[in-house]
Amino acid sequence: MPGLTRWRPLPVNDHSMKPCLSLLTVCLLLSACHAPAQRIESGIQPPASWAFAERAAAQRSDARWWQQFGSPELNRLIAQASRDSHEVTAATARVRQAQATAIIGGAPLLPELAFNLRGERNKFVRNSDRKANPSDDNNTNNFTSNLTASYEVDFWGGIAAGRDSAIQGLRASEFDQATVELTLLGNVADR
Question: Which molecular function GO terms apply here (predicted)?
Fold first, then answer.
């Protein structure tokens, strides 16, 4: 087509790109080297004691609140609902899963040891496989072992943050389980 020119990239000097790439690399490396966010003190002091702390603790510790009604039928219904509820079973399984995740999340903070032991016995069928020696029984035994130890230094705190995240996930699962149980028991007691 007349009047249209083909686009061509400008020639790039390799020497002018090296400082730019070096600066970009340094900026990327330095952006990964940041400390965790510091807590900002607000200056507000919490009260020395809470007005309803004792009552709240007493309510929280009364896990079998429905027994205060003194109804054997209610006790039986709640026991049956707790035993047969799929939601409670699923919530309990999620708590176990979160416990395992928390254990696994903390494992990289510990040193790792590995020990390998290997034994091998070979029997040669033909004498041509080995040098003929009248005292040789055509068997060979080979035993090897090794011990390795390794440890990853948590230089930037990423491993500890992963462990802390898994622990908070466990706490959330425990609260979810308590909510499911309380909702179920409240519904049974309400009917």
Answer: efflux transmembrane transporter activity
- Rounded-to-integer distance, Cα 44 and Cα 37, Å: 20
* pLDDT higher than 60, residue 89: yes
Q: What is the DSSP letter of 65?
A: G
CB 171 within 8 A of CB 178: no
**How is residue 98 written in tokens?**
């979160």
Give me the chain's average pLDDT, please.
81
Which has the closest alpha carbon to 91: 183, 190, 189, 187?
183
Does residue 1 carry a pLDDT above 80? no
Which phi and psi (to 5°) does residue 71 adopt?
A: -105, 115
Q: Letter for the amino acid at 98?
A: A
Distance CA 33, CA 158 (A): 11
Strand partners, 116: 146
